[in-house]
Design a protein that fits this description.
Helix content is 33%, strand content 17%. It is of the alpha/beta class. It contains 10 helices and 14 strands. Strand 6, helix 5 and strand 7 form a beta-alpha-beta unit. This is nicotinate phosphoribosyltransferase.
C-alpha cells in the first residue's frame, strides 16, 4: 500500500500520542464503547491558509478504520478565527489517539502555507526562493516544502522539499560564502570553479563576501560578461556596504540589504552593460520587509526567504462538540457550522 506522505507507521502504535489520550481511550473503551462523538478542529487567527488535510486523510486511510464520518475544508482554503476546518464523527476509541497529532499537523503545515501566501501576496509576482532548510530541523523539509507549495512558494532548495510534491526537483540556489572562503576570498576564482563544475546551471554569484557589493558585482559581471544570470546580496544587518559608507543615515536604513544599495547596484550594472543580470536579495526578508522594498519600487528580481517561512505560529486545537448527536463541549467551544467543510472520503 503506497504511503503518500511517508507516514511513520509507529503512529498506529500510539508512539506519538500523549499519554492522557491513550488512557482516555482505554477508559471509554471500557465504559462507553459504543458512544459516537464529533470532534472539531479550529484555530484563532484571520486569513489562515489551511494545510495538512491531505496528510490527515492519508493517516486515516492507513489506519484502516472504516466507520468514521470525516468533514474538512479543501487543502489551501482560507479560514478565519474559530472556523472549523475538520470534523470527525465516530467511536472515540477509533481516533482518540489522533487528536494531538492532527493538532500538530494542521499547526505546522498551515503556518508554513499561510506565511508563504502572505509573502507571495506582497512580492508583486516576483520569484520567491524558499531557503528555510537552514532555519529548522531537517526532517521538516518534506512537509514544509509541501506546505510552502500550497501557499504559493514553489521554488525550493533541497531534494527533500520536493518529496511530497508531484513535480520533479528543480533546485534553485546560489554559491554559499563557504565556497568563496575556500578560494581565499577570491570571488572570481570561486565563480570560475562553480562555472567549470556546473556549466549548465544558471550562474548566480554571491557578492557580499567583502562587504563591497557594487564593486564585486561589477568585477564578476565584467569578467564573465553575458554568463552571469544573477548576483545575490546577503549583507548582514549589522553592516553598511562600502559603497554607502559616505552617506548620511537615519534609523539604520543603510544597514544590511536595503533599497538604496539595490537601486545603486541596478544603476551601476545597467551603466556597465549588464542590464540582463538579475538581482537576488536575502538576509532577514519577511512579508513586511518585502512590502517595504516593493513600496519603494526597489529593482529586486528574486527574494530569498528563510526564517519568515516558519514564524508566527498558528495553533490548532481539537475538541469534542457532540456526543451521540447532542451538544456536549467545553464552555466556549461549541459545535460550529460552516459551509466550507464538506464530507470527504479517506479510503
Amino acid at each position: 500500500m503506497k504511503n503518500k506522505f511517508n507516514i511513520d507507521l509507529k503512529i498506529f502504535e500510539n508512539y506519538y500520542s500523549a499519554d492522557y489520550f491513550k488512557k482516555t481511550r482505554e477508559i471509554l473503551n471500557k465504559f462507553k464503547p459504543n458512544q459516537l462523538v464529533t470532534m472539531q478542529w479550529f484555530q484563532r487567527k484571520e486569513n489562515t491558509v489551511i494545510c495538512g488535510i491531505e496528510v490527515i486523510k492519508e493517516i486515516l486511510r492507513l489506519s484502516e478504520v472504516k466507520d468514521l464520518n470525516v468533514e474538512a475544508v479543501e487543502e489551501g482554503e482560507v479560514v478565519n478565527s474559530l472556523e472549523p476546518v475538520l470534523k470527525i464523527t465516530g467511536k472515540y476509541n477509533n481516533f482518540a489517539h489522533f487528536e494531538g497529532l492532527f493538532d500538530g499537523i494542521l499547526s505546522r503545515a498551515s503556518t508554513i502555507a499561510t506565511n508563504a501566501k502572505k509573502i507571495i501576496n506582497v512580492a508583486n509576482g516576483k520569484m520567491v526562493l524558499n531557503m528555510n532548510d537552514r532555519m529548522d530541523y531537517y526532517t521538516n523539509q518534506q512537509i514544509d516544502g509541501y506546505a510552502s507549495s500550497i501557499g504559493g512558494i514553489t521554488n525550493l532548495v533541497t531534494e527533500a522539499s520536493f518529496e511530497f510534491l508531484e513535480s520533479q526537483p528543480n533546485l534553485n540556489g546560489t554559491m554559499p560564502h563557504a565556497l568563496i572562503a575556500s578560494f581565499d576570498g577570491d570571488l572570481l576564482k570561486a565563480t570560475e570553479a562553480y562555472k567549470e563544475v556546473f556549466p549548465n546551471n544558471n550562474l548566480v554569484v554571491l557578492v557580499d563576501y567583502n562587504n563591497d557589493c557594487i564593486n564585486d558585482s561589477l568585477r564578476v559581471c565584467n569578467n564573465f560578461r553575458n554568463e552571469v544570470y544573477a548576483v545575490r546580496l546577503d549583507t548582514s544587518p549589522s553592516l553598511v556596504d562600502k559603497s554607502l559608507q559616505n552617506l548620511n543615515e537615519k534609523d539604520n536604513e543603510l544597514h544590511g540589504v536595503n533599497p538604496t544599495l539595490v537601486k545603486l547596484l541596478r544603476e551601476k550594472l545597467d551603466e556597465n552593460g549588464h542590464k540582463n543580470v538579475k538581482i537576488i536579495v536575502s538576509s532577514g526578508f519577511d512579508e513586511n520587509k518585502i512590502k517595504y522594498f516593493e513600496d519603494l519600487n526597489t529593482p529586486v528580481d528574486i527574494y530569498g526567504v528563510g526564517e519568515a517561512i516558519t514564524k508566527n505560529k498558528i495553533a490548532f486545537t481539537g475538541d469534542i462538540v457532540l456526543i451521540d448527536g447532542k451538544k456536549q463541549s467545553k464552555f466556549g467551544r461549541e459545535n460550529v457550522l460552516s459551509n466550507k467543510i464538506k464530507s470527504i472520503k479517506y479510503n
